[in-house]
């Protein structure tokens, strides 16, 4: 036994393997038979170890992928996106007249816009419409699908701005002021194709807010379509524009190969980090401006 054990140890086998083989073949087995069994046993052990290592590595990779998924912004987006979306304030008159081709106050257009935001997960959607739109349709002020207004009011989505009659004359409150004020106070988004220039001139903070939070749109038949780049091609995407905190990283624009030597100015299609979001005059325009200053 000692001779066979020393022989196997010299070949790199362990004492446990030798005992397994001797238990199988018996102590009187020849060295060649023992060596053959040891070779088979060694191959089997290596295979099992390889499989075990492979399973371990697969499990580690799976756990790392799971941890990446749990830590990834997209997972966070799926769970917390509803809380991360900005409140939406819709200019009901502007949307309805736009859907009605500026001839009819189409309440269906308001419903299409509201549904678009609700389907994206927005929980806070408010529509402002003047109260006199509840009155019966007249030839000079056509209204279609008027029952939609009542339905949205019951769902606490639509709000009628106050109006009243004084000696047969209608007194109407300015609904645009309601829209801008609520959007500003709730840090939300204004949905309208109106620029609100009169309100922007009232307060500097309103002007900045209108410039940065106004979402324009188009109607293609019955399809509500806001732009994918609400603030221009160098601004945020629509997804990030509607979120409080951006989740999907913006695609980096290709920098201009000419850098500061570029003579195209604001017409250049490449990205100029030195100008930020502000348009940049071309070199020729700069030289003209400098010559005017020098002449003066």
Automatic annotation (TrEMBL):
Residues in C3H1-type zinc fingers: 250-275
UniProt keywords, alphabetically: Endonuclease, Hydrolase, Magnesium, Metal-binding, Nuclease, Zinc, Zinc-finger
PROSITE patterns listed in its UniProt record: ZF_C3H1 (PS50103)
GO CC, any one term: cytoplasmic ribonucleoprotein granule
GO MF terms, alphabetically ordered: hydrolase activity; mRNA binding; RNA endonuclease activity; zinc ion binding
Entry superkingdom: Eukaryota
Region spans: Disordered: 52-83
Leader peptide range in chain numbering: none
A Pfam family matched in the record: RNase_Zc3h12a
Cofactor(s) in the UniProt record: Mg(2+)
Coiled-coil residue spans: none
Family: Belongs to the ZC3H12 family.
The protein's name in its UniProt record: Putative ribonuclease ZC3H12C
Lineage: Eukaryota, Metazoa, Chordata, Craniata, Vertebrata
């Amino acid at each position: 036994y000692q001779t066979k054990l020393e022989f196997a140890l010299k070949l790199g086998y362990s004492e446990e393997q030798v005992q397994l083989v001797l238990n199988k073949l018996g102590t009187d087995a020849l060295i060649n038979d023992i060596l053959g069994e040891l070779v088979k046993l060694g191959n089997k052990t290596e295979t099992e170890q390889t499989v075990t290592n492979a399973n371990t590595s697969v499990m580690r990779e799976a756990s790392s992928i799971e941890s990446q998924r749990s830590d990834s912004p997209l997972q966070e987006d799926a769970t917390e996106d509803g809380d991360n979306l900005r409140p939406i304030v819709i200019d009901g008159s502007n949307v309805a007249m736009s859907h009605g081709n500026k001839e009819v106050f189409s309440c269906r257009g308001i419903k299409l816009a509201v549904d678009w935001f609700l389907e994206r997960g927005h929980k806070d959607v408010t529509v402002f419409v003047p109260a006199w739109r509840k009155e019966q349709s007249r030839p000079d002020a056509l209204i279609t699908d008027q029952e939609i207004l009542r339905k949205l009011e019951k769902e606490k989505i639509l709000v009628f701005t106050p109006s009243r009659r004084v000696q047969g004359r209608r007194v109407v409150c300015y609904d645009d002021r309601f829209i801008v004020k609520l959007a500003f106070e709730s840090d939300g988004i204004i949905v309208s194709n109106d620029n609100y220039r009169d309100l922007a001139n009232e307060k500097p903070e309103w002007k900045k807010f209108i410039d940065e939070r106004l979402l324009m749109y188009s109607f293609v038949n019955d399809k509500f379509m806001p732009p994918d780049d609400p603030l221009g091609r160098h601004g945020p995407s629509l997804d990030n524009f509607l979120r409080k905190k951006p989740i999907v990283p913006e695609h980096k624009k290709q920098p201009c190969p000419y850098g500061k030597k570029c003579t195209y100015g604001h017409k250049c299609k490449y990205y100029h980090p030195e100008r930020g979001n502000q348009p940049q005059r071309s070199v020729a325009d700069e030289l003209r401006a400098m010559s005017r200053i020098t002449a003066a």
